[in-house]
Amino acid sequence: RKNVEDFTGPRERSDLGFITFDITADILNEKSYSKAFGNKNSIFDWNVKQLFLYLSAEYSTKNNALNQVVLWDKIMLRGDNPRLFLKDMKSKYFFFDDGNGLKGNRNITLTLSWNVVPNAGILPLVTGSGHVSVPFPDTYETTKSY
Amino acid sequence: QPPRSWPAMLSLDFLDDVRRMNRRQLYYQVLNFGMIVSSALMIWKGLMVVTGSESPIVVVLSGSMEPAFHRGDLLFLTNRIEDPIRVGEIVVFRIEGREIPIVHRVLKIHEKHNGDIKFLTKGDNNAVDDRGLYKRGQHWLEKKDVVGRARGFVPYIGIVTILMNDYPKFKYAVLFLLGLFVLIHRE
């Protein structure tokens, strides 16, 4: 459940992508997680200290079979609201490609995942069930003058 | 024989006791001690094989992954080649030429068709990624830099290792007491 608008700009020799996004997520009731751990009501059970959430973009290019870039992350502590309603977020980290693989790339998949950090025990990585595919345009945006 | 109590050990009774131990008993105790040490080493080597990591258990040394991990937490690692490196994973890596392993999270990966991968890391508690930590001219980490991926953890326990490192006197005291205990214990 993410909406994006985007444009790209070349930076030296690598593509740099800009994405703005909204995130609507209900981690509390995330079905895939509760099935694995047998707990219907709360992802924040007695042994969960925090969740490390991250939004990652995954795509393929001519140079690289697989690229993954974290655009945004957030630490959700036990006791924080498990429902996210974020609008018009800008990516926290520069979305550089290793080359020029963003231009005209039709298939960038954005996924929200999280790392469950227990008080003690196993550290699982869970992928959220919604994901969105985003295309980058064929042309670069002209650089703004100041 | 009744178990020795502390006051008895502090008095010269203890020294008489050691003198009275005949040679066979002494060798037996030393062998016992050797067995314990060998078993511990075997378990450690076994862990190295099972996890594929040269250092299957590490202690967190800095606060750069707070609030998830704090100094003194113990991490359990695996380093199986079949497990691909993906963003979000917590990796323990060494920078070429440096001894101290660093525990941070994978922020970016670029993997080629032949499996070669280069990736960037960042500590949760740091404002910037780790490029500043890498070797001069190095912009990415590679599989060979990885000691392992963190799969589980236990808090606090590693503090003992940190204490032993920072306060050598403490380390000697612990080793001395352990040695004493094993040699004296006769049941």
Automatic annotation (TrEMBL), chain A:
<dbReference type="InterPro" id="IPR007653">
    <property type="entry name" value="SPC3"/>
</dbReference>
<dbReference type="GO" id="GO:0045047">
    <property type="term" value="P:protein targeting to ER"/>
</dbReference>
<keyword id="KW-0812">Transmembrane</keyword>
<dbReference type="GO" id="GO:0005787">
    <property type="term" value="C:signal peptidase complex"/>
</dbReference>
<keyword id="KW-0256">Endoplasmic reticulum</keyword>
<dbReference type="Pfam" id="PF04573">
    <property type="entry name" value="SPC22"/>
</dbReference>
<comment type="similarity">
    <text>Belongs to the SPCS3 family.</text>
</comment>
<keyword id="KW-1133">Transmembrane helix</keyword>
<keyword id="KW-0472">Membrane</keyword>
<dbReference type="GO" id="GO:0006465">
    <property type="term" value="P:signal peptide processing"/>
</dbReference>
<protein>
    <recommendedName>
        <fullName>Signal peptidase complex subunit 3</fullName>
    </recommendedName>
</protein>
<keyword id="KW-0735">Signal-anchor</keyword>
<comment type="function">
    <text>Essential component of the signal peptidase complex (SPC) which catalyzes the cleavage of N-terminal signal sequences from nascent proteins as they are translocated into the lumen of the endoplasmic reticulum. Essential for the SPC catalytic activity, possibly by stabilizing and positioning the active center of the complex close to the lumenal surface.</text>
</comment>
From TrEMBL, chain B:
<keyword id="KW-0256">Endoplasmic reticulum</keyword>
<dbReference type="InterPro" id="IPR019533">
    <property type="entry name" value="Peptidase_S26"/>
</dbReference>
<dbReference type="InterPro" id="IPR036286">
    <property type="entry name" value="LexA/Signal_pep-like_sf"/>
</dbReference>
<comment type="function">
    <text>Catalytic component of the signal peptidase complex (SPC) which catalyzes the cleavage of N-terminal signal sequences from nascent proteins as they are translocated into the lumen of the endoplasmic reticulum. Specifically cleaves N-terminal signal peptides that contain a hydrophobic alpha-helix (h-region) shorter than 18-20 amino acids.</text>
</comment>
<feature type="transmembrane region" description="Helical">
    <location>
        <begin position="26"/>
        <end position="44"/>
    </location>
</feature>
<keyword id="KW-0735">Signal-anchor</keyword>
<comment type="subunit">
    <text>Component of the signal peptidase complex paralog A (SPC-A) composed of a catalytic subunit SEC11A and three accessory subunits SPCS1, SPCS2 and SPCS3. Within the complex, interacts with SPCS2 and SPCS3. The complex induces a local thinning of the ER membrane which is used to measure the length of the signal peptide (SP) h-region of protein substrates. This ensures the selectivity of the complex towards h-regions shorter than 18-20 amino acids.</text>
</comment>
<dbReference type="InterPro" id="IPR019758">
    <property type="entry name" value="Pept_S26A_signal_pept_1_CS"/>
</dbReference>
<keyword id="KW-0472">Membrane</keyword>
<keyword id="KW-1133">Transmembrane helix</keyword>
<dbReference type="GO" id="GO:0004252">
    <property type="term" value="F:serine-type endopeptidase activity"/>
</dbReference>
<dbReference type="InterPro" id="IPR019756">
    <property type="entry name" value="Pept_S26A_signal_pept_1_Ser-AS"/>
</dbReference>
<keyword id="KW-0645">Protease</keyword>
<dbReference type="InterPro" id="IPR015927">
    <property type="entry name" value="Peptidase_S24_S26A/B/C"/>
</dbReference>
<comment type="similarity">
    <text>Belongs to the peptidase S26B family.</text>
</comment>
<feature type="domain" description="Peptidase S24/S26A/S26B/S26C">
    <location>
        <begin position="44"/>
        <end position="132"/>
    </location>
</feature>
<dbReference type="Pfam" id="PF00717">
    <property type="entry name" value="Peptidase_S24"/>
</dbReference>
<protein>
    <recommendedName>
        <fullName>Signal peptidase complex catalytic subunit SEC11</fullName>
        <ecNumber>3.4.21.89</ecNumber>
    </recommendedName>
</protein>
<dbReference type="InterPro" id="IPR001733">
    <property type="entry name" value="Peptidase_S26B"/>
</dbReference>
<keyword id="KW-0812">Transmembrane</keyword>
<dbReference type="GO" id="GO:0005787">
    <property type="term" value="C:signal peptidase complex"/>
</dbReference>
<dbReference type="GO" id="GO:0006465">
    <property type="term" value="P:signal peptide processing"/>
</dbReference>
